[in-house]
């Protein structure tokens, strides 16, 4: 009867089940790549691969932040509008700076600095309202989502804000240039993902996020400053939105009320496809990265083939999301059945 | 014990040679069990002995791997998902399954609402609910929301619900685990009323004295085996306990070593007030075990939470090691060497979906940082230590904590609390809902901690536990201290007198003793 915990350094029973669950999204991505390649060999062409990676960087970076928010039991619906708002403010500020001191690298750095401040500030507002204001995250971020969206529409006067062409020339390489074969946005994505992974899995902060999302009371009774950690997840989310915007603005050099529409749902979808639980308590950064790649790959494959209309992109993504969550729940259930109470 | 029902009455529900395996793991081995109309049949056994599986089979929630169920003289296959309730077999679970926002009447008729035409007949339901509650002699308003009721009242609602379904067999899974002594008394009266009407009651409890009092027969399970089914008149609590654990259970409580009178006072509470409590004053010495007794809702937990910084104080002073302690949150109290172990291990103590290691180190994660990053090796070592020190038994450390037995969960929570190396430990119901063997272990651990010089407060609703462990006992009543007992005064009768308000404090000079 006296079965003690075996040496914990070796973990032989981690189990096939868990491996499969972790590998599920990766498996899906590989299948998708094989499908894409068989439909059109151009899919794995060098140009298309870098294009796919670059495109996935926006959603991916935002989704890394969303992984923290969701793991800690929150939700942030405002990220798409926030991105549009920050993009608009960056352009307004940079244009104003060009007017007063001409276009230079400093103009762009000023824009980037403002973006970071706005992102962190917007995240703090979301966090503050949910924790200190004790309003549900869904409601708070639904509100800020509407506010940012209408602010960008107002500042753009219903049209489009365009970056001064001089500044644009200087800023352009941030999106279009490469470093060791990979475009800068991909590098930003990689760095954000690696830092996010370390933060989630190797620091107390990540553990606290999981604890809070899994049971807020247990966290409180375990000396965790729940409000502070929660607020930080929203600030991280805002920071990620800001980074995504910084690499997004040089792509088109403009922002309008149509910028970043539905990004929040794509980011949440990437998180969920990756295996993070929407109700919180369990977060996987690696899965989120794969989730973002899967979502982008779907759109890309539809673009490259004529079998399904590109207009059905959303429908295919929707099916994938529902299927992913169904499969994850299925594996949870069999897992539960296989184990009996001690 | 009520008048024993005739042993010749045929049983209403019986199980014959029931075995059950989950996958390849057998949990029940050829169990025979039966219950007769008008009888209380208790099932008892250590955690993991197979009690819950047996009642799941008796109520149709699980199907046996082999063996058969006979209900009302006929062999039956009970329908799953609680549909057996329609046949008259009702389970009252330990975690009461009531929708918190419905009214009492709604809850009683949930799933079989009375209707007039297409609409709910609210008046008829309310009247009938009232009638049923009246037969139980309880004053619960049928319009009250469930979430406004006490746990005891919720249980009465469950019983009313069972009666409204003409239940012939009621299975109660540890109904008294969350009840105070008086509330348990009321419950027993209800059980006797039910049996007088010919209802068969299957009763699960860890409390041997209750079983001696209430049950006609006792079935003892151990490791999935049927040890014996015996009439209560042939049993003593000791003999039941021995059958349960299969070994002699001598000295359930360790010997007491009272600290010297001049040992330094580490915790001193003066006139503490907080929501639900007022004017609490006591001292706690190094090496002392101070018991907190009282009825449920008497404010014992509120005192602990106010001291530990979990709820705001409204007045008074707490002094820890000579310094005024006004903790805004738990991290500060832990840093000051004061740890509170909650009674709600599933809701507040442990992350049920996480493994052993994250649970153990959650309170003290900062200790396991190396250059700002978590040091998995140091965490694993902490788990190794805790497993050895507190005898935590788990198949492997990655198993979800929710799947451990209550006793192992409790030991893990104890390990988690002690990880912070506190000088003062407040343990709230440290043995709630766990078997007698594990209880004994925990009692010895508590005594050993006190012998090491820790100052310990034990809050418990089990009077025997308070008496068996404590050097002194504070009795709470309605948010105030009713009295402080020492030495030979610590008896069940004396505690009850204070807890029930028959005897008042008035000996305040002793409070600061």
Write the layout of secondary structure elements.
The complex is a heterodimer of chains A (342) and B (513).
Chain A (H helix, E strand, L loop, with lengths): L15 H24 L6 H26 L7 H23 L3 H27 L5 H19 L4 E3 L2 H7 L1 H4 L1 E2 L2 E2 H19 L1 H11 L1 H6 L4 H27 L1 E3 L6 H11 L11 H20 L8 H26 L4
Antiparallel strand pairs in A: 1-4, 2-3
Helix pairs in contact in A: 1-13, 1-14, 2-8, 2-9, 2-11, 2-12, 2-13, 3-4, 3-5, 3-11, 4-5, 4-11, 8-9, 8-11, 9-11, 12-13, 12-14, 13-14
Chain B lengths: L12 E10 L2 E11 L4 E5 L6 H8 L7 E6 L2 E3 L12 E4 L11 H5 L6 E2 L2 E2 L1 H14 L15 H14 L4 E5 L7 H16 L3 E5 L3 H7 L2 E6 L2 E7 L5 H9 L19 E10 L2 E9 L3 E6 L5 H9 L6 E6 L2 E2 L5 H6 L2 E4 L3 H5 L6 H6 L7 E2 L2 E2 L1 H15 L15 H14 L4 E5 L7 H17 L2 E5 L3 H7 L2 E6 L2 E7 L5 H8 L14
Parallel strand pairs in B: 3-10, 3-11, 6-9, 9-10, 15-22, 15-23, 18-21, 21-22
Antiparallel strand pairs in B: 1-2, 1-4, 4-5, 7-8, 11-12, 13-14, 13-16, 16-17, 19-20, 23-24
Name the quaternary structure.
heterodimer
The radius of gyration computed from the alpha-carbon positions of chain B, rounded to a whole number of angstroms, is: 24 Å
The coarse silhouette of chain B is globular
Would you count the extended β strands of chain B for me? 24
What share of residues are in beta strands of chain B? 25-35%
**Spatial order of the strands forming the largest sheet of chain A:** 1-4
Summarize the structure.
With 342 residues, chain A is mainly α. Chain A contains 14 helices and 4 strands.
């Amino acid at each position: 009867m006296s079965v003690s915990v075996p040496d914990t350094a070796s973990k032989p029973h981690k189990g096939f089940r868990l491996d499969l669950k972790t590998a599920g999204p990766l498996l899906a991505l590989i299948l998708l790549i094989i499908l894409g390649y068989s439909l059109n060999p151009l899919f794995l062409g060098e140009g298309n691969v870098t294009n796919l990676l670059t495109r996935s960087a926006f959603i991916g970076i935002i989704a890394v932040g969303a992984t923290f928010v969701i793991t800690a039991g929150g939700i942030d619906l405002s990220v798409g509008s926030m991105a549009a708002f920050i993009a608009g403010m960056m352009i307004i500020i940079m244009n104003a700076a060009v007017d007063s001191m001409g276009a230079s690298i400093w103009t762009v750095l000023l824009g980037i600095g403002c973006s970071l401040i706005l992102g962190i500030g917007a995240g703090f507002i979301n966090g503050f309202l949910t924790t200190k204001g004790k309003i549900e995250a869904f409601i708070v971020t639904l509100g800020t989502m509407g506010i940012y969206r209408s602010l960008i529409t107002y500042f753009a006067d219903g049209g489009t804000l365009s970056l001064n062409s001089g500044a644009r020339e200087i800023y352009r390489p941030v999106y279009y240039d490469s470093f060791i074969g990979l475009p800068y946005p991909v590098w930003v994505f990689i760095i954000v993902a690696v830092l996010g992974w370390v933060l989630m899995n190797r620091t107390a902060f990540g553990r606290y996020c999981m604890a809070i999302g899994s049971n807020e009371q247990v966290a409180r009774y375990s000396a965790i400053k729940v409000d502070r950690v929660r607020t930080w997840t929203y600030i991280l989310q805002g920071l990620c939105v800001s980074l995504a915007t910084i690499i997004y603005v040089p792509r088109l050099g403009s922002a309008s009320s149509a910028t970043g529409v539905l990004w929040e749902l794509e980011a949440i979808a990437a998180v969920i496809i990756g295996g993070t639980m929407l109700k919180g308590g369990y977060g996987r950064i690696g899965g989120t990265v794969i989730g973002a790649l899967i979502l982008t790959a779907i759109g890309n494959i539809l673009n490259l083939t004529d079998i399904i209309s590109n207009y059905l992109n959303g429908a295919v993504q929707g099916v994938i999301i529902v299927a992913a969550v169904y499969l994850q729940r299925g594996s949870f259930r069999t897992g539960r059945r296989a184990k009996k109470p001690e | 014990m009520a008048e024993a029902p005739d042993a010749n009455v045929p049983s209403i529900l019986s199980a014959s040679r029931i075995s059950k395996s989950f996958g390849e793991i057998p949990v029940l081995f050829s169990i025979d069990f039966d219950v007769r109309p008008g009888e209380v049949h208790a099932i008892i056994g250590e955690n993991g002995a197979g009690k819950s599986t047996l009642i799941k089979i008796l109520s149709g929630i699980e199907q046996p791997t082999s063996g058969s169920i006979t209900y009302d003289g006929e062999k039956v296959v009970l329908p799953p998902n609680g549909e057996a309730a329609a046949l008259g077999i009702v389970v009252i679970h330990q975690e009461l399954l009531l929708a918190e926002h419905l009214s009492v009447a709604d809850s009683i008729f949930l799933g079989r609402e009375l209707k007039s035409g297409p609409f709910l007949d609210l008046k008829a339901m309310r009247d009938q609910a009232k009638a049923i509650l009246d037969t139980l002699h309880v004053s619960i308003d049928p319009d009250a929301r469930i979430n406004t009721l006490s746990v005891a009242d919720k249980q009465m609602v469950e019983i009313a619900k069972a009666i409204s379904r003409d239940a012939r067999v009621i299975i109660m899974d540890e109904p008294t685990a969350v009840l105070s002594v008086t509330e348990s008394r009321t419950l027993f009266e209800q059980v006797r009323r039910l049996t007088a009407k010919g209802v068969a009651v299957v009763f699960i409890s860890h409390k041997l004295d209750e079983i001696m009092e209430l049950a006609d027969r006792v079935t003892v399970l151990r490791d999935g085996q049927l040890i014996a089914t015996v009439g209560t008149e042939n049993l003593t609590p000791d003999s039941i306990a021995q059958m349960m654990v299969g070994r002699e259970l001598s000295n359930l409580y360790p010997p007491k070593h009272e600290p010297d009178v001049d040992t330094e006072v580490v915790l001193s509470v003066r006139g503490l007030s907080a929501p639900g409590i007022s004017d609490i004053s006591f001292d706690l010495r190094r090496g002392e075990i101070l018991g907190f007794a009282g009825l449920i809702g008497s404010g014992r937990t509120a005192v602990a939470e106010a001291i530990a910084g979990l709820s705001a104080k409204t007045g008074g002073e707490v002094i820890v090691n000579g310094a005024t302690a006004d903790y805004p949150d738990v991290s500060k109290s832990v840093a000051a060497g004061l740890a509170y172990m909650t009674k709600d291990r599933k809701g507040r103590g442990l992350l049920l979906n996480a493994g052993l290691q994250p649970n153990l180190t959650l309170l003290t994660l900062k200790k396991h940082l190396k250059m700002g990053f978590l040091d998995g090796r140091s965490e694993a070592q902490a788990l190794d230590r805790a497993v050895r020190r507190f005898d935590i038994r788990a198949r492997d450390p990655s198993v979800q904590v929710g799947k451990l037995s209550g006793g192992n969960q409790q030991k893990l929570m104890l390990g988690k609390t002690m990880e912070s190396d506190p000088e003062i430990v407040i343990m709230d119901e440290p043995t709630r809902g766990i078997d007698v063997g594990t209880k004994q272990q925990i009692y010895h651990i508590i005594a050993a901690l006190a012998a090491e010089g820790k100052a310990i407060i034990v809050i418990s609703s089990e009077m025997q536990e308070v008496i068996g462990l404590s050097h002194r006992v504070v009795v709470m009543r309605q948010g105030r201290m009713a009295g402080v007992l020492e030495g030979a005064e610590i008896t069940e009768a004396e505690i009850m007198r204070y807890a029930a308000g028959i005897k008042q404090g008035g000996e305040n000079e002793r409070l600061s003793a």
